[in-house]
Amino acid sequence: MATSSIVATESTGGTARGGGPATGSPRRRGRLWPRQLLITIALLVMIYPLIWMVRLSFLPESAIAGSGLLPSGTWTTENYTEGWNALSIDFTTFFLNSAIVAGLALVGNLLACSLSAYVLARLKFAMRPVYFGVVIATLLIPIHVLLIPQYLLFSYVGALNTFIPLVLPKFLATDAFFVFLMIQFVRGIPRELDQAAFVDGAGYFRIYWSIILPLMRPALATTAIFTVIWTWNDFLGPLIYLTRTDLYTVPVALNALLSTDTGFGTGRLLAMSVLSLLPLVIFFFVAQKQILEGISSSGIK
């Protein structure tokens, strides 16, 4: 009887528990609309540059220079067709190169970082605190300090103008942030699962592959998402190691497009920039559930 009364009260928008107004009551909605208005205005301010860029990319080149904050004019796709073939090699090659680098970096980070995290979080061996300290210490080293030594190393082994300098470090668990993230996650998995697997005769690698790795899904999703986004948008690494045009990734190709233009290619640059964002936008909408779960589970702000 009491339960049915509560359900009836909530369904009719009455008073909630504790005597306060229910969530859907007019009084509650009246207090929320100023906050919603501010959020809407902030959202429009943040996405306006993107909308502005997309609109300009569909304007004729002659109309872009004189456009204001609210550009208007004839819609055209000539910037996209001309920009796609503006360089000696079309952008199909650059998008494929970026996809290859991002895909290999994704596989490398998932395998190497998860295995390193399992070893450092679960196994007991000499020097383990030292190895863990080294991993944490690498988080404090600016990447720019390592650029020259890494370039000389890859130059010495003849790996310049290949994807090896961009991909190989991912298979060596050099992204200490993801290793640390997974270590913290593995520490939260009950050790009783390992002990039960040992009793059943499983070895260390079997426990990692069959038990720990499936339970690390939220941490793996977070690593995968940020690896793809950061690798796809990486400009410095490909700019340093790749000088052949047919090996350019999308960010380097956009820079080359900017360098070859003489002030009359703004529309083509904007058009290709819009296209370069499309894979990440599609990736976000496909994986938005995992993105939100991964961010909330890992505490990334």
Descriptive report:
Helix 14 packs antiparallel against helix 15 (266-286). It contains 16 helices and no strands. With 301 residues, the chain is mainly α. It is flat, with a radius of gyration of 26 Å. The chain is 70% helix and 0% strand.
Summarize the helix and strand pattern as letters.
HHHHHHHHHHHHHHHH
Number of helices: 16
Low-pLDDT parts are 1-21
- Report on the biggest sheet: none
What's the arrangement of secondary structure elements?
Elements: H1 2-11, H2 26-57, H3 61-64, H4 78-84, H5 91-122, H6 128-138, H7 143-156, H8 164-167, H9 176-187, H10 192-199, H11 204-215, H12 217-233, H13 236-241, H14 250-260, H15 266-286, H16 288-298
Helix pairs in contact: 2-15, 4-15, 5-9, 5-12, 12-16, 14-15
Describe this protein with a few key phrases.
301 residues, mainly alpha, 0% strand
Structure summary:
The protein is mainly alpha-helical and 301 residues long. It contains 16 helices and no strands.
